[in-house]
Design a protein that fits this description.
The complex is a heterodimer of chains A (247) and B (42). Chain A has 247 residues and is mostly helical. Helix content of chain A is 79%, strand content 0%. Chain A contains 8 helices and no strands. The termini of chain A are far apart. In chain A, 38% of the residues are buried. Chain B is mostly helical and 42 residues long. Chain B is built from 1 helix and no strands. Chain B is rod-shaped and about 55 Å long. The termini of chain B are far apart. The model of chain B has no long low-confidence stretch (mean pLDDT 90). Classes of the chains: A mainly alpha (247), B mainly alpha (42). The interface between A and B is medium-sized, with 33 and 28 residues.
């Protein structure tokens, strides 16, 4: 590797240092949260009041605008935790451990939203709040995995052992994600199959799809904003504890 | 504004649950930051 390339790598490493991340995230997170708020307001009102009722499900389909974004993000956030855990496991980059930890709580709440709004959608459509369907059960297991991940974080006091245990748990726990995603293909389920992920021909009307995209963007930005905010707090807490130890 | 009819309770409950859980996340982040700020000032 040439000296110039080494310099570039060093500069990149400096950009992702905890100190730089702390300052950069402080600049960005209020704007990201503001943008998320705008998307959620626009998408929420659009889906709730302006979109015409569905020809089969009538008005009940409006629950989709909170259920689907929360479900998608519940899977995506755990995948982000998984990627950060793998990077931390291999290269021991502390920032990745902070990013994974900050995402856990948000992912757990999104999974809870997905399950509760799914139950409220299930009652008028299926006649029951809950069925032991493959998709619903695997999503419930995902919620327990999130709880266990968070519990593990608060149970271990030693910082290094905690980071090691949480990243190992995230890597093993991620195995549930493909099961949740493909459960509707692997088993005969009451839950419907993919409808918006078929980008070539989504089985959803475009006027219903647009507010859904705005809501997904809103949930994504909200996650990013809250994650940056939480990560900053974790960095500040660790710096404070490190200074206390030095005294 | 559309009439939600017999589905109104389910729709409003779904949106209310989402709103309060998001509010919980926001407030928790806010109070965590304030707590750490007060600790570091001491």
């Amino acid at each position: 590797m040439s000296i110039t390339s080494l310099g570039r790598v060093a500069r990149l490493g400096h950009l992702f240092s905890r100190k730089n991340f702390y300052h950069l995230s402080g600049l960005f997170f209020p704007w990201v949260l503001g943008l998320a708020f705008c998307c959620l307001m626009v998408g929420g009102f659009w889906g709730l009041f302006w979109v015409l009722p569905d020809y089969q499900q009538g008005q009940a389909f409006r629950i989709m605008y909170v259920h689907v974004p929360a479900s998608i993000l519940s899977l995506a956030i755990f995948s982000i935790i998984f990627v950060n855990a793998v990077i931390f496991w291999i290269w021991k980059i502390k920032l990745c451990d902070f990013l994974a930890r900050s995402s856990g709580e948000i992912g757990a709440v999104y999974t809870l939203i997905a399950l509760l709004t799914g139950a409220l959608w299930g009652k008028p459509m299926w006649g029951s709040f809950w069925v032991w369907d493959a998709r619903l059960t695997s999503e419930l297991i995902l919620l327990f995995i999130y709880f266990a991940y968070l519990g593990l974080g608060s149970a271990i006091e030693n910082e290094e052992r905690r980071a090691w245990a949480m990243s190992l748990f995230a890597i093993v726990g991620w195995l549930d994600i493909p099961i949740v995603h493909f459960s509707v293909n692997f088993w005969t389920t009451l839950h419907q199959g993919a409808s918006i992920s078929k980008f070539s021909k989504p089985s959803i009307e475009v006027t219903q799809l647009l507010p859904l995209i705005v809501m997904i963007l809103g949930f994504l930005l909200l996650y990013l904003g809250l994650m940056l905010w939480k990560c900053r707090s974790l960095i500040a807490k660790q710096e404070y504890e490190a200074r206390l130890m030095e005294r | 504004m559309p009439e939600f009819g017999s589905y109104a309770i389910y729709i409003w409950l779904a949106y209310a649950i989402t709103f309060f859980l998001i509010l919980f996340l926001f407030l928790k982040s806010y109070f965590t930051e304030k707590k750490i700020e007060s600790q570091t000032k001491k």
